[in-house]
């Protein structure tokens, strides 16, 4: 006979729930405990008046302020395709709905970024979700300041129906190969001023020498466990792959940058994506529309000299990404 005690502080009172786990149907227990709760919860999004102008159009033009590493607060709605992804522990699956209600964070073992590309699909890094089960993943759209109720428009959280990791994805001691995945959400997304998809680039597009933006809620300094609550963004130039290799080797790092990878950053460092930004977008604006050109993948440090960030190159696998959105 096994017992599990869960103590939570609600309205300044302690509620002790004693769960008898042995011999009890877990879903039946949850239905009894919370008769009005369904997992994943079905939320009716009441969209404000909004004229959708196509992919890659941000309605907010707020200017960034100070701070990702060396970056800035992005501004509410500046990147309406930005997704906040949480991957839960399998041991917590039975009680995940309860933990979501009470805000218990220990069940989330991984936090990543992502990019909305359609009403039902989000692109993220393969290494974020390669070992995850769809029922353990939650995707939040429209968030700017995490866990804030004071934003101009609300955020919405979705369950995940399917996870499609690129068939050539491979964990490696260096940057992971073909580090991209497509998540199918459990319901359609209603586009709003702060929730809209980003465009995909044409196959083979080259962005060498152009400045892109990386965004996320990752660490503000290398090795830091502290994470900002406010979405951060940083501008970084796209580099030639061979230049990226030479810079790394000058620092004693023998890395191979394969064709499906892309590097972006400064030789002197100072600006970069960091831990917790994985899966998030590297994006570039052309003629008033934003394009997803990279997915945050790897880096040997954050914003260190001669160690630019390594991204998955979306233009290399855009055909697979587009096909993945048609399968479910």
From TrEMBL:
GO biological process: one example: proteolysis
Transmembrane regions listed in the UniProt entry: 12-34
Record-annotated Peptidase S1 domain positions: 68-326
Keywords annotated in UniProt: Disulfide bond, Hydrolase, Membrane, Protease, Serine protease, Transmembrane, Transmembrane helix
Keyword Transmembrane attached: yes
A molecular function GO annotation: serine-type endopeptidase activity
Protein name: Peptidase S1 domain-containing protein
